[in-house]
């Protein structure tokens, strides 16, 4: 929980590395979204504003 109805969801690979992480506000994508490969390399990074790509 990040405050003001904001929260972050993170999913992990079985090896413990992060798989993806997205920030939400009021149930919509809002903030940064990241995708990682199994070796920890960032594959994709995006910014969102009220559910839309910023």
Automatic annotation (TrEMBL):
Gene3D superfamilies: Histone H3 K4-specific methyltransferase SET7/9 N-terminal domain
Name of this chain's protein: Toxin-antitoxin system YwqK family antitoxin
